[in-house]
Structures are given as C-alpha cells and as structure tokens.
Amino acid sequence: MKFKEPQYHSTKNFLAFIFVLFANLQLSASYLDKSEQHQFQGCSNPTYPKLTNEYASGSMNAGKIDIRSNGDISLDVDVLIGLNDGQVMASSAIYSKNQNFIQDMKNGNIYHFDNYYKFLNGSLAKDSGEIKLVDGTAYLRERNLLVKYESLAGNLNQSLEFNNASLTACNNSSEGWEIQAKSIKINEESRRGYIEDLSLKILDKTILKLPYLPFPATTKRLSGFLEPELSFTSEGVDLFLPYFWVISDKSDLTIAPRALKDRGIGLEGNYRYLTKSNSDSINYFDLMFFPEDKEFKKDYKMADGDRWAFRLKENRSFSNLSTSVDWAKSSDSMVLLDLPSSLTNIANQRDHYLQQSVSMNMQVNNFSISILREGFQSLNPFINNGYIKKPELNLEYQQYGPSITYFAKANYSNFDINKNHFFLADNKIVKQIGKRFFTEIGAETLQNFRYFDLSINGSFLYKKYNLDDIKINSKATSIPSVKIKISSLFNQSSKDSFSLFMPELVYQRTSFKDQSMDPIFDLHQRNFGNFNRLNTDYFFGKDRVPDTEFLLARLKLQKRMNNGSRLNFQVIKKNELEESRIINSMLNRSIGKDSQVGTNISFENKILRAYFATNYSQKRNALNFGQTGIEIRLPETQLIISRNFQTNVPLLNSENKLDYVEFSIERSMSEGYKFIGGISKDLNSKKNLESYFGFGFENCCLAFKIYASDKRLSRYNLLNFQSLQFNNTSWEKMISIENKSRINFEFELKGLTGGNNNKRNRFFSNAFSNL
Fold first, then answer.
1. What pLDDT, on a 0 to 100 scale, did the predictor assign at position 352?
2. By C-alpha distance, which of 334, 263, 265, 259 is closest to 297?
3. Residue 232 DSSP SS3
4. pTM of full prediction above 0.90
5. 3-class DSSP assignment, residue 296
6. How far is CA 767 from CA 330, 351, 737, 759, in A?
7. DSSP per-residue codes, 190-223
8. Is residue 200 part of a domain?
9. Which residues form a coiled coil (predicted)?
C-alpha cells in the first residue's frame, strides 16, 4: 500500500476502506514478469524444513503394529505412512485398508506438497484427500504463511477451511503482524484465500477489524485488484485502483480507473503480450484517457476537454523478415506532464517527442531492404512536429572479398508536414516538402602487414531533391570521401595480467560541395546554434554533408589483472587540416580550424569503479564535455559521486551548457534496515535538480519504507528566434508543474499483501538521457 502525502490523516474507518482495497491484490509474477515470481524465496520458516519424500504411497511403518478383527491396522509409536505427494507421521493411528482411510491420528504431522499440517488429532482419506484435523498449526511454504487453528476441514488438493485461527508470516508475531479470524478459507484450485471476522494486529496491537478480507494464496499471477495508490497532491486527492486480468500465459491486461479531484475521472490501461516470433521481447499497448479535464478546460476554453495518450510498441521476427511498430500519440503536448502515471509507459519526463514509426526489414544474404514510415509528435507546445517520412525506402548491398569489400546504399524519402494544433510559435519554419534521393557507393580494402594493418575506404555520395513547390528540379550533388586508417595490435601476458596496446592513425577527407540551395529535412530547427562537431550525423543527417579534412591519432591500452581488476586508457588527438565551409555557411560566421584532445581513463575491480573522460578544444580554449566519478560497492554500502559537463545540448539554454554533480548512497544496516539518499545539483544555476531521502526496513515478516523526494527542472529557455514569439511567463508556468515534492509511505505484510513495487512513476525518470 502506498501513501503519497504532504500531510498525514489517519482514522480507523479510512484505514479499513484502504485495507479492503489492497487486500484484493493478486500478484502478477508470471511468465511475462519473472522478477516477482520468487519474492518469498529465502523466507522459509526454519521450524519447517523442506523434506525429500523417500516413501512410496503404500509404505507403512510403526514401532508397534496390530491387526484388528475387522481388518483395521492399529499403529503405535513413530507411525509413518507414505502418500502420493508426501507423508504422515504420528504417535498413533488406525488405518482402514478397505477404505484407504487413516483415522484417530494423534500428535501428528502431515507433509504434503512442501506444506506442513501439525495437529493434536485428526483423520485423512488417502484417495480423496479429505482431511479433518483438530488443534494444530499449518505452514504454507509458497507464501511463507503460518496458520494456527482449532479445527481444519477440507481437501488437501482442493480447499481448506481453518476455524478460530490466526495467520502470520512472522517467526515472532508480536514483533510483526498477525491476523486472528473466525474462519480462513483457502481454495487450492483458484489459488485464493478468504478471511472472515478478522482482527489485524501489528506489533501486538490491534489496529483494524474487518468482516471479510480476500488474499492471494500463491505467488503465481492471478486476475484481481492490484495494489491501489492514494495520493494527496496540489490538485487534490488522486485515487488509482488497477485491476489485473490474466488473459493467457503470454498476455495480460491491467485496467485502472483513476479519480483526480481537480481534474476529473479517467481510465488507464496496459496490455502486454508475447508473440511466437519474438518471445524475448514484451510488446505492449498503453492508454490514458481523461474525459472533460476541468483544469484543461479553464486554460483552453475553446478546446475539447478530452485528454488522452496511447503508445503501441511491438517487434516481430520471421526468419529473415522483421517488423517493428512504435506509435504514440496524445491529445495535446502537455497531457503527460499534467497526468503522470505509474502504470503506462508512453514517455519519460524529458522526452521532447512521441515517436510514430512503422518499419519492415528483410535480409537476404548480402542484400537488405527496409521500408519505414516515421513521424514525431512534439511534447513541447513551442516546438513544431517537424516532418513525416512517408515512406522511407532503404536498400543496401555488400560484397565481401578476401582483401576488398564493395558496398552500395540507396535511400528514398518522401517528406510531408506533421501539423501541431497546439503549437504556439510560428510554424512557417517548416514549409518545404518533397522527395529526396540519396545513394552511396564505395569500397574498402584491408591489407595486413607484419606490424600494422592498413584500411582504405573510398565512397561517392549522390543526393538529389524533387520539391513540390519548385517546378525546376535541383541538380544532383556528388560528394567524394576517403578514409585511410593505419592500426596495430600488440599484446603482452604474464602470470598476473594480460594487456592490449592498440595505436591507430586516421586521415579523412570529404570534399566541399555547395548545398545551400538544398532544403533541410533531417536537421530540425531546434538545433540551430547547437553544432556538435564530433557527432555531425545527429545534427546534419543527409541534408548537409560537411566538408572535412582532419588527422586523428588514437592510442588505446587495456589491461586485465588476474584478481579481476581492469584498467582502460585512451587518448585521442584530432587536428582539422581545413575549416568546414558548410558549417561556416550555416553559422553565418567563420569558426576556423580546431584541434581537439580527448582522453578516457577507467579502473574497475570488485569494490571500486573510477572513471574520467574529457574532450578539450584548443581553439576555443574550453571543454566540449567532461565527466568523472567514483563508485564504491561494499557488501553493505554503495556510494556514487560524479560530475558531468556538456556543451551543445539542444533546448537547454542560450549557452547550451549542462554542468551538474550527483551524489547517492545506499546503506544496508543490521536487522533489515536500509538507508538511501541522493542529490543532483545544477552548478550553473546553483539549484538542486533532484534530492531524495529514504529509510526502510524489510524482513520475511513485514516491510515499510519512507521516501521523500524533491524534483526541480533546471530553468532552460528556448532558442532566441522562438523565445520572442511567446510570453516567458507561460513557459515558466508550464515547467512548474514538474517541480513537485512528495512524501511516500509504503508498507507490506509479507505473505498477505503483494509488494508489487516495480510499478513506479515511469514519467519521472531518465533525468538527462534525452537532453
């Protein structure tokens, strides 16, 4: 059960209502999610060890055996009778051979399917499994539950009813939890349990009384209600009640009604399924629907109040053919920020776009073909959706030879405009549409010499445009490129270590061709002023092929010690021999030639990982990026400290810089206690991006966690040409909804409730991965 609240309210009536809700929990550990399937592993009660059944069903033994005149067998002293799936042990018993019935068992113990049933006296029908026991204790191993009872009646293979019983998973219930009840029923076929007229004690104090309480009697997944979530937020009470439906061994559906006081009532759903062609990847369809969002109607009175979002993600493989679908869409760009969800996985917090793509790929020997429809929906109301590729066709052929490889690539793309109804800025920046033809042919040769390898790669790139609004088609552009690489590999081994030494020298040149009249389809307008010289493909795509000529030297050293330690060292020196006229043209200024130096050093062993990486521009006398950190992994403590710096970050701020430090600690203490804490701080704005603190306790009996977090977005602005088109106050208001603090309290009664803690709020994640 989870409470997320800045203030605390507790009444017995309120707790009773919530407890009944989460008691419907049916665990979803399954073929689709094996991580939850063994959550009670290692929690067996030492008083009831797991036994190996060494006795056949017809076996019987005792210290004294008498056969009565009616044919019954009287057994006394150390009685042992074999069962199909277990055994019976008692001080005395009477066995009726004609009825295959054991009666008058005294001071006995039945071991059946790893479960124990201790009793003062009782009877058992071996054929049907019908059982009647008095004054005893039952141990149900699968969920580590201990039941004390006055009487037990039922069938070992079907259903059991414990009367005047108590239930717990704790070795000492006074230090954990215990339920005392008039009746506890367990249905072995449906794997469900039901408790009637119960009192719940925690730490030996009665905190709750209920007339009825269902619970799961298995760790296998069952249809039923999952753990609800109740939150107190700035927008009022938020109640989330998911229902889990097992459709088959390879599919399930979760439907969750949701009520948010200031916004209204909505519905969320998650459908997961596996396919025969791709059993390793979980496919899913996520849906969120909020009709008549009251807060949204206040801000957009003319707009439809219905708010929704969905995502379909599927991958299939058939021999040499594969298909992929990743299609997401939302009613508006802000719905996923306004209504973050712990069930659906439609987008992360800093995703700028929802992908809308469908592709099919085929590989036949050295030939491959793919066809793709690709588009994006903006999750930022100040950024347009860009272009749609409908379709894109790729052909590729490679011919391998003993010393030379030939390759040919062809790409056809048809671009159209993807409109955004909620786009607040000027949408004229995306106006040209048309077709693009792109081909590349080349060859690569590899020669092995005594001390080094030589590879030469040469190619010609052709591209041509056919624009819809221009009657005269553009001329084809031909761009030659050559890359020469000299590399070598040396190794050294000893009884204590093994080392690799890899020097490399690269010369690369791409000729200049004037491309100023070509449109820009791949390069989105959001990246103006953010040219990363080390990753030009990301910013330029196929529309701007920059002219380059540089010389690069790289030196790698890898060393592995027998004690498991590893050392990696790399240094790179890159000298640009000519400045790029293409980049100068796009920036409307000359940036000149640059010389860059980069290094990457890391060391790792069983308890320590340390790393340092940086890239330095000699021309600008500044770092392009840098990162350093240390991770300490002790048996009871994990500590991480890191510093990260990066320039050329799209949509960050006018300086395009990101500089932050992170610290986190996780400490496991004695007797099941744990402490976690961490902070991420923006060193430019001197503000915390995220801080959290948590304290918890867990054993085989119960678990609780208190977790406090505070999230803030570093204040970033849009690019200058866009920032003039809207009120900056609106932008501040928009990102303020992400700046929320929460206090979460979670508790679990082991064996009775679920502990399905993997469903976190997925939207508040991946802090910097998408910048």
1. 73
2. 263
3. strand
4. no
5. helix
6. 22, 10, 16, 18
7. TTEEEEEEEEEEETTEEEEEEEEEEEESSSS--S
8. yes
9. none
